[in-house]
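Why Flagellar motor switch protein FliM? Reviewers of the renewal asked for a concrete example.
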Amino acid sequence: MSRRGGKSSGPEPYDFRRPTKLSREHIRTLQICFETFARQYATLLTTSLRAVSSISLVSIEQLNYDEYIAGLSSPTVVAMFTIDPLPGTAILEFSLSTAMACIDHMLGGPGGPQPQRPLSDIEMPLLHGLIDRTLGELRYAFEGVVQLRPEMKNIEYNPQFAQAGAASDAVIVSSFEMRVGTEECMATVCLPFGAIFPKLQGERGEGVLTEAQRAAREAAYRNVVAGLEGAPIEVSVRFQPVRMHPADLIGLQPGDVVPLAHSTSTPLAVVTADITFAYAVPGAQGNRMACLVVPSPQPGQHPTHRPAGQLGMKNRAEETSR
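Here is what the prediction returned.
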């Protein structure tokens, strides 16, 4: 039914599992990236395998991870890889018979029907090398959107064993028709939606800001930084912990000595929120205890302690002199 006079043909269903959807502009950007990847991938296969190969983009969909996994056959090649600097794990998937055909061509074979079995210890490095070069083409295809550094993690044959995300995580799935010699299959690339989506809209969002909006955003950023820098936090100086039996703790009396595992040549840890951000040696400043921040010790290095009378906080010493 067509729309006339600006009236809607009816209410549109809302999927609460997908509160954010790809717009037409986002789909177009992804289409350009994946079409570039398909051309580069086909060229890589043709030159590497010395067999006529073709890759063509079929569709781009937004799914949940469990929907994507449920739609894959088993066994199949599920190559999981990281997409630094973005978080999450992505997937390159294609049929096991196509993988066997690629290896057959790399070893000088004619291709043709392939056995359905896991790859051997000799075949696996060959496939790893081919996938690594394929990820290089994916990096090239997405250069206009984000500078990816994809890196291979591992390969699974059963999609149910591929732990690349939670079942409800949104993903972007692109499907390709893949042909290597006489072998044909459907290949997919699965990218985490939450990692890619901000890159699809972030740069465009900055371009529509007015000068007043940009100035207000910068002022808000400066205020947040200034507020964080002036916020008081609890800081402690700690010895290395020592393990004791409950019986020893219960039997402690005033005057008992508890040996510490902390060497006299090892500085103390300066800690806040259980995060060690500096090291220091103890001493005194006037009638108060103080500590002097020292360089972080390197493995096997024993820092030299200064006499207690020379230790103190530099800023506090300056305030005393004033």
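The first strand starts at residue 53 and ends at 64. This is the kind of structural detail the renewal will allow us to pursue systematically.
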